[in-house]
C-alpha cells in the first residue's frame, strides 16, 4: 500500500484522490509522502520504547562466545563483549540476551569434594 500511494502521487494524483483510492485518511498519505521525501524510504517507522544497546551482531557474538565455554559468568562475558564492541554493556543485559538465546546462566558455586576424614576414622578404629 505504501509504495502504491507514493507511485500514484508521483504520477500526478492529488493526495485526497490517493487517500480516497486507498481508503485511508489524507493525513496518512501526507505523512507517508513527507517520510518518503525525507528518507527516500516508506518502510515502517521504528517501534516506540527504549532502543537496545546490543545489536544483532553483538547478540550473535555473545552466543558464539558463551556456547563453547558454559562456565563463564555473565560478568566475564560482559567484559569480553565490552572489549570487542568498544562500549560498556552491563552484566544484566548480557544475562538477558543469553536467556533469550536459550543459554541460562547459573550462578557460580564452589564444589566441595566430600572425602571422609581418614585420620578421624583411623582414631575411631584404633589404628
UniProtKB/TrEMBL annotation:
SUPFAM superfamilies: Homeodomain-like (SSF46689). This is Transposase Tc1-like domain-containing protein. Signal peptide: none annotated. GO terms for biological process: DNA integration; DNA transposition. It is found in: Nucleus. Residues 61-104 form the Transposase Tc1-like domain. InterPro entries: Homeodomain-like_sf, Transposase_Tc1-like. It comes from the Eukaryota. Its main location: nucleus. It comes from Araneus ventricosus. Pfam families: HTH_Tnp_Tc3_2. One of its GO terms (molecular function) is DNA binding. GO terms for cellular component: nucleus.
